[in-house]
């Protein structure tokens, strides 16, 4: 390659700084190449060019960030804090460029320097500090908070290793490797080595007087702040996500060091660093692991100390804390913040119990995303002795619930048993101002089942719903620029107008009837399918038929999400294809089925489902009779970035959880926003999507939530063999057993979950699932009608903007207001 890449004069002018017409951005990038990276232009590779560009973009963010924080400090509005153990941010460069409105300018400069912006964007590693929907929701909410100029900060942990990297062995098994996302340096974070707090574990809590106690001894660990800048879209407001890293308090434990015990000293320093070493890769389930509880306390204690310090800087009476601070608990994971705030108010601020409890219960808000984790009391007592005292005090002082003994037992924070356990959801509910679920159906289930007794006690107004949302900046403008451009041109309003008020997409409805628009709409979809095909070709080395229907299911591997139903349906379709003559096959809609998703490393059945998918793919993709009509791909290492390629390319996506098990789902919204149709069960946010787009544009199937309990009961006490319930499914299971997709014996444990208790109702839903897929085929045959459905679907997605969700939280929960940074306010 010649020196320099790109235009020699551009580089030389920028380096010398002589030419007055060198764009500022070019100068800034070149300056970072020379000074921050200490590299020469002549050997700069894509990674270096990415880093220099990122540092240059970051300079813009830092200025806005600083001004925003100063503005918030001066205005002193009430602030909201979003406590989440997961923030699944994905990549930042492209998003920052779009939010800053600088993408075209950077594109020009980077091109001038001989690089391709899209290639540089591809060099960034995902920040994958989350498992799935819950973590990505937190990331969308940060984008919407900043975009609406709301004073909201996120608080989380800076894991050294995010969600593991998934590899697929030739036999189809999932393998896990660490995700060293920080290895290349992370330009998007600012270490705040001066912002630190000490966090204590273990030791003794001695009650003194007036309900106070002294907690001492044990282990002390330091929390160090790292700040991630969160740019709003089309505004200067830039919010903050503060992530904590753990480190030993003095580098080494000096006592053991002096006593000549070097090894023990190093060990204790390791144990401090271990707290934020790795994200727990379990979606939904994390059973009594001590380190997980340590993470939860470490993070809530540091965050609360930081929030308290910021509040105290305002010099307001402590009783006004809830007038300036709202704290949202993202699921039960940060519930320890409740006893921790009580501890600070009682032991440090020396308030009475009543005052402390009044403040606490007016500060917290609790979002429930699922069913109920617990912690064993012996572990809690050892690790957090003072908090256990406070929890017992809450039980005795606060909650003298009336009613019979069963009801009291259900509502108690303490669950009897061996060992006794702390029910985090009950504690979160009792200690919060309001509780919400994440979709209408889910919030109704919260009110009528898991929190029924609390609804009767506190009244229903404490229990609300905020249906989840997604940010249209990342999930349309960024991931689908072709569609974004088409929409803007057609609506004849500025892009920012509809991206900030997604209901404006309704303006697309009349275009659904216009042949020319339909053509352009279809052309965008096709080019997105080609982009995905190109990705598959370069990563898996196989070609993909872009004329086929693209059918996508991408989410964590879970029995309740029923990827098993999908793959068994694929086998059914395959068996059917095999019975057809070549002439008959030609009438079938060709289909490519994509799967992606990670299984928790210890979740045996979920890993078996992956193995089955991979082996079905192997057989189908090489069958000359059928491969033109049906192929299957399992794309390894699902991530936010991969979702950004898959979602815009989908014709249909699958959201097929057993009714009543998926609290909301959020990818369903992303697919529909990008004009993909949906096949799904009557569950989570699918229901509200259908309400918006009309049932004729959604392919529903399966039993409804109220039937699920009864069916499970029947499975246990009046089982009917699969052969009778669904001969089609029985035939599929037999083929798998017989070894058509590799050693059948391997799959027996999976097949037995279906043959035996079938907790997730595959045998009940299989036939109606197949019928729904037939309807999908039928609808797809009439391509014009399909495109109309696709356009109408996008047009009706306004409700699912995370801007709407955040407005709801801001008004109905946090009581905070927009605090806009005007040009030159700071
Ligand atoms: C998910 C829910 O399963 C999903 O339906 C919902 O759309 C999403 O949250 C956002 O609300 C959950 N993820 C987790 C992860 C953990 C624990 C509980 C849940 S619920 C670790």
Describe this structure in words.
The protein is α/β, with parallel strands linked by helices. It has three domains: 1-75 and 113-124, no CATH class; 76-91 and 126-468 and 809-814, Rossmann fold (3-Layer(aba) Sandwich); 472-704 and 782-800, 3-Layer(aba) Sandwich (Rossmann fold), CATH 3.40.50.2000. It is 49% helix and 15% strand. The protein is built from 36 helices and 24 strands. Strands 7-10-11-4-1-12-13-17-18 form a nine-stranded mixed beta sheet, sandwiched between helices. A six-stranded parallel beta sheet has the order 21-20-19-22-23-24, with helices on both faces. Strands 14-16-15 form a three-stranded antiparallel beta sheet. β10 and β11 (238-248) form a beta hairpin. α14 (377-383) crosses α15, α21 (481-491) runs antiparallel to α23 (515-540) and α24 runs parallel beside α26 (604-621). The longest helix has 30 residues, at 46-75. It is globular. The protein starts with 7 loop residues before the first helix and ends in a 12-residue tail after the last helix. The mean pLDDT is 95. Ligand TH1 is lined by residues 131-134, 137, 283-284, 331, 369-370, 438, 468, 662-666, 684.
């Amino acid at each position: 390659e010649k020196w320099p890449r790109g235009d020699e004069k551009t580089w030389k002018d920028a380096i010398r700084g002589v030419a007055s017409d060198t764009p500022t951005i070019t100068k800034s990038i070149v300056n970072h190449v020379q000074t921050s990276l200490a590299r020469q232009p002549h050997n700069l590779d894509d990674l270096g060019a990415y880093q220099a560009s990122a540092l240059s973009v970051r300079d813009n963010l830092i200025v806005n960030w600083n001004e925003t924080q100063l503005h918030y400090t001066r205005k002193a509005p009430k602030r909201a804090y979003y406590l989440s153990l997961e923030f699944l941010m994905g990549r930042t460069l492209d998003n920052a460029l779009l939010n800053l409105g600088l993408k075209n300018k950077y594109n020009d400069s980077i091109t001038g320097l001989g690089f391709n912006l899209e290639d540089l964007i591809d060099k960034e590693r995902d920040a994958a500090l989350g498992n799935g929907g819950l973590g990505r929701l937190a990331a969308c909410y940060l984008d919407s908070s900043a975009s609406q100029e709301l004073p909201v900060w996120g608080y989380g942990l800076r894991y050294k290793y995010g969600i593991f990297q998934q590899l697929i062995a030739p036999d189809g098994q999932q393998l896990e490797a660490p995700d060293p996302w920080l290895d290349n340096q992370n330009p998007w974070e600012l270490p705040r080595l001066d912002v630190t707090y000490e966090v204590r574990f273990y030791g003794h809590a001695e009650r003194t007087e007036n309900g106070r106690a002294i907690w001492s001894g044990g282990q002390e660990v330091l929390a160090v702040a790292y700040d991630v800048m969160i740019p709003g879209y089309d505004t200067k407001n830039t919010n903050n996500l503060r992530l904590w890293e753990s480190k030993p308090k003095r580098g080494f434990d000096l006592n053991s060091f002096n006593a000549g015990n070097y090894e023990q000293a190093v060990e204790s320093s390791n144990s401090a660093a271990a707290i934020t070493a790795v994200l727990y890769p379990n979606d939904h389930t994390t059973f009594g692991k001590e380190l997980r509880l340590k993470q939860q306390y470490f993070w809530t204690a540091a965050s609360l100390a930081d929030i308290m310090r910021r509040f105290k800087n305002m010099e307001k009476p402590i009783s006004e804390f809830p007038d300036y601070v709202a704290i949202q608990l993202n699921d039960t994971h940060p519930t320890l913040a409740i006893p921790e705030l009580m501890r600070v108010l009682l032991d440090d601020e020396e308030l009475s119990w009543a005052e402390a409890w009044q403040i606490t219960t007016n500060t917290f808000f609790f979002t429930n995303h699922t069913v109920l984790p617990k912690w064993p009391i012996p572990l809690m007592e050892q690790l957090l002795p003072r908090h256990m005292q406070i929890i017992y005090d809450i039980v005795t002082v606060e909650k003298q619930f009336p009613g019979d003994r069963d009801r009291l037992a259900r509502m108690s924070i303490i669950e009897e048993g061996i060992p006794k356990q702390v029910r985090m959801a009950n504690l979160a509910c009792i200690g919060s101002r309001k509780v919400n679920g994440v979709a209408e159906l889910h919030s109704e289930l919260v009110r009528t089942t898991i929190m029924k007794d609390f609804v009767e006690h506190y009244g229903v107004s404490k229990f609300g719903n905020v249906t989840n949302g997604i940010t249209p900046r990342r999930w349309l403008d960024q991931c689908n620029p072709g569609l974004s451009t088409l929409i803007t041109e057609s609506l004849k309003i500025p892009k920012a107008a509809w991206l900030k008020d997604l209901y404006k997409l309704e303006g697309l409805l009349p275009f659904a009837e216009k042949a020319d628009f339909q053509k352009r709409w279809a052309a965008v979809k096709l080019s997105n399918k080609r982009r995905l095909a190109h990705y598959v070709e370069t990563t898996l080395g196989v070609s993909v038929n872009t004329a086929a229907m693209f059918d996508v299911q991408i989410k964590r591997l879970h029995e309740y999400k029923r990827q098993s139903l999908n793959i068994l349906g694929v086998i059914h379709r395959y068996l059917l294809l095999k019975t057809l003559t070549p002439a008959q096959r030609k009438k079938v809609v060709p289909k490519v089925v994509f799967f992606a998703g990670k299984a928790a490393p210890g979740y045996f059945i979920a890993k078996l489902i992956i193995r089955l998918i991979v082996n079905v793919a192997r057989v189908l993709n090489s069958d000359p009779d059928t491969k033109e009509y049906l192929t299957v791909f399992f794309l390894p290492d699902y991530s936010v970035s991969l979702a950004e390629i898959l979602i815009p390319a989908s014709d249909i996506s699958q959201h097929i959880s057993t009714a009543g098990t998926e609290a909301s789902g959020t990818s369903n919204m992303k697919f529909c926003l990008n004009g993909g149709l949906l096949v799904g069960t009557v569950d989570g946010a699918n229901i509200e999507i259908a309400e918006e787009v009309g049932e004729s544009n959604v392919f529903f199937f399966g039993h409804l939530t109220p039937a699920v309990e009864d069916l499970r009961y029947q499975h246990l006490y009046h089982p009917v063999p699969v052969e009778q319930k669904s001969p089609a499914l029985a035939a599929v299971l037999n083929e798998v057993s017989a070894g058509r997709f590799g050693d059948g014996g391997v799959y027996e444990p999976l097949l037995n979950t279906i043959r035996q208790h079938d907790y997730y109702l595959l045998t009940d839903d299989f036939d109606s699932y197949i019928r729904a897929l037939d309807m999908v085929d039928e609808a797809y045959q009439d391509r014009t009608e399909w495109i109309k459905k696709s356009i109408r679907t996008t047009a009706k997605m306004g409700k699912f903007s995370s801007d709407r969700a955040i407005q709801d939280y801001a008004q109905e929960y946090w009581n905070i207001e927009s605090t806009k940074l005007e040009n030159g306010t700071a």
